[in-house]
Amino acid sequence: MAKSDTDSEVQSNTSPSISPSLPSQPPIMFTTTEGQSVNLSEVLKHTIASSDFVDCFGPLIGNVVKASVDSALSNYVSNLEAKIEKQEQIISDLMKRKLKNNPDKTVMTEDLTQYRQYLMKKLNDVRKRHEIDSFWTMDGHIFAKMTPEATKKFIGGMKDLNELFFLTNNVLSKTHIFTDYVIK
Questions:
Q1: Secondary structure element (H or E) that encloses residue 167, with its range
Q2: Is the dihedral of CA 130, 132, 137, 140 positive or negative?
Q3: Where do the H-state alpha helices sit in 15-142?
Q4: 67-94: per-residue pLDDT in tens?
Q5: What pTM does this model have?
Q6: Under a CB-based contact definition with an 8 Å cutoff, are residues 174 and 165 in contact?
């Protein structure tokens, strides 16, 4: 097949010119059913530039790009939120540790239910009478220690509080002070 002037012009316009080190590739030619020789890169160039192609495939390509950007942004925000939450937890733990055994007995409590707040108030009364050493909350649960060396006791309700108080005093008559709470 002899090359015409238009073939060499098409080849010079469509051959890759990205880097001088890349060898020039000959155009991919095919013959139509009418017997015409056509450069494939020219056909693709005109097809992609046509408004029908852009109208049909443009939104799909845009959605893929948008979805990947949205996904990356969502991952970034999620990771950032996790880092902030972790830093807040570290700061909270550090503050709680700094308040531990402070002379003025300042405490930080979590956002507890009304019932657990009541238990904390009762434990504070007992601690003020020096009948227990300390009490605290962790992840919504209440713990108490009889002495600094004692193991921590879980306080889940009035029964646990009464048992703790009974163990510290060995006097049944004092346990009645913890029976005045009524759940509304």
A1: helix 158-169
A2: negative
A3: 40-49, 51-99, 114-128
A4: 666 677 777 778 888 888 888 888 877 7
A5: 0.38
A6: yes
